[in-house]
Design a protein that fits this description.
Two copies of one chain form a homodimer. Chain A contains eight helices and nine strands. The first copy, chain A, has 259 residues and is of the alpha/beta class. In chain A, helix 1 runs parallel beside helix 2. The radius of gyration of chain A is 18 Å and the shape is globular. The mean pLDDT of chain A is 94. At the A-B interface, helix 2 and helix 3 of A face helix 2 and helix 3 of B. The structure holds adenosine-5'-triphosphate (2 copies) and magnesium ion (MG) (2 copies). One adenosine-5'-triphosphate sits at the interface of chains A and B.
């Protein structure tokens, strides 16, 4: 059955859709049978990014899961669950399904997390973003406890273990990293390394802050579609960005180290 | 009655909470009677940023508005509306109330927008962020129509005009601007200038990408609290950041030009 790769982080703008699009396109370009589900249908960043894509390029089929408008919450949640599982079922013969989730707590967000084989969480190099992952002591920078998002992930991990005994391979990747070394960057790196052991995720190579990750949105292109053969010029930043995407995909495809 | 300053953008991570905190603290430090309402209580970036604050520093009283857990959507919406208006009423003698909203469509988000005297929308220099404000032609970069978020703002503007004849002063500010001039930055600037006339907002000076806007979060400090008198050293970036916050506050306090 397909390997489900969920891009999740309750923190808005951490880079879920950006990472999801580049991984989905990267897998398609590598000849994998991959589909994409957009669980943030209203904003639709993933759907709209891929909708603009030239038909001749390798492109994952993409389905948006609409939020239910039913007036009673329990009914709406159930309708969404059925739609999500139906969409997953449609791609039963695929190797991978990439799921992009909204930057807020919602029924669809939680359902996706519970179904993840691999959960990829991008995070900005920021104490503001970190605050959703863990509570940090202002003076010692020690981890004083988990926070909302890690608690939600743990709850979905439990739910998954109870339902089919499977584990969720949780990967955290830094996104929009500054290109200048500085105290903030080092502090965040140290905290994430400690957090990985404590919360149970592994760190994957992340993305630097690069305009190429966002300037091709309107054309439905990613930097992976560019290259000397396509007539686009390659800058050092493009080459670096390409390596970042490949390193992330390699990390996702690698089995997690034994616990 | 207090002037309500709402920080809104359905796009996650555009900088609402960051701008809200710096404007709220800036107004408090300028001696204004200002309170802050956090409508993103689950994530709580605004509340948690200000909660860490030293009591001796000028600090706006801050109230978080909880989301309703009532099982029927219409009842939950009504409970949230009552809680929001009660909180606004509590600060009836204040000069300003700053409202931070979630990066997603929700009842509280829409209620806040309808009550705004000034709506401040931060946006990243990104076609991905722009996509929620307007649909853009990939080749000509012409504006082909409004998008979800601008439609929501217009709907709340209509609602407000019908209820008390008031208008909403809508300000858009670029956030996390790169420090290198480049084609993407120029293109976005041109589109925003055209969009301002077409959609009916004015552009305010924005914030550059600066670590100082996020590295003081754990200590509850903002760059406005630093200075030679406080013993902290001031870098060029701090001075520039300080000017950016003051320019934004000046723009917010300025009456919009007659339409
Ligand atoms: N590595 C990067 N370099 C440059 N810009 C980036 C990078 N990653 C993301 N961005 C930009 O940052 C913003 C947020 O990214 P994105 O929309 O992917 O985040 P998200 O987590 O999906 O947000 P949401 O919570 O709204 O779904 C967008 O404007 C995007 O173009
Ligand atoms: N001007 C800036 N310079 C550097 N970092 C910034 C700047 N503005 C925001 N950030 C960082 O970008 C991230 C998103 O900012 P913020 O949380 O304020 O956005 P938001 O719109 O409130 O997000 P959400 O939709 O989740 O509520 C945070 O990690 C924040 O610290
Ligand atoms: Mg997204
Ligand atoms: Mg926020």
């Amino acid at each position: 059955r397909p390997r489900l790769i969920v891009f999740g982080n309750e923190k808005g703008g951490s880079g879920k859709s950006t990472a999801a699009v580049h991984v989905a396109v990267g897998l398609a370009r590598a000849g994998k049978r991959v589909a994409a589900l957009d669980l943030d249908a209203r904003q639709g960043s993933l759907s709209r990014y891929l909708a603009g894509r030239d038909q001749s390029l390798p492109t994952p089929p993409t389905v948006a899961i609409q939020r239910s408008a039913l007036p009673v919450v329990a009914d709406a949640d159930e309708e969404e669950r059925r739609q999500l599982d139906a969409a997953i079922g449609r791609f039963g013969s695929y190797e991978f399904i990439v799921l992009d989730t909204p930057g807020s707590d919602s029924n669809l967000t939680r359902l996706a997390h519970a179904r993840a084989d691999v959960l990829v969480t991008p995070i900005n190099d920021s104490f503001v973003d970190l605050d959703l992952l863990a509570r940090i002591d202002p003076d010692t920078h020690n981890i004083t406890g988990p926070s909302l998002y890690s608690e939600m992930v743990w709850e979905q991990r439990k739910r998954r273990a109870l339902s089919d005994g499977q584990t969720i391979d949780w990967i955290v990747m830094r996104n929009r990293m500054g290109h200048v070394e500085g105290r903030n960057k080092r502090v965040i790196a140290d905290i994430l390394a400690a957090l990985a052991k404590r919360i149970g995720f592994r760190l994957a190579p992340g993305f630097g802050e690069r305009v190429i990750f966002r300037e091709l949105f309107l054309k439905g292109l990613t930097l992976l579609d560019l290259g000397s053969d396509t007539g686009h010029s390659m800058t050092l930043s493009h080459v670096a960005a390409r390596q970042e995407v490949r390193a992330l995909i390699d990390a996702i495809l690698a089995a997690p180290p034994p616990r």
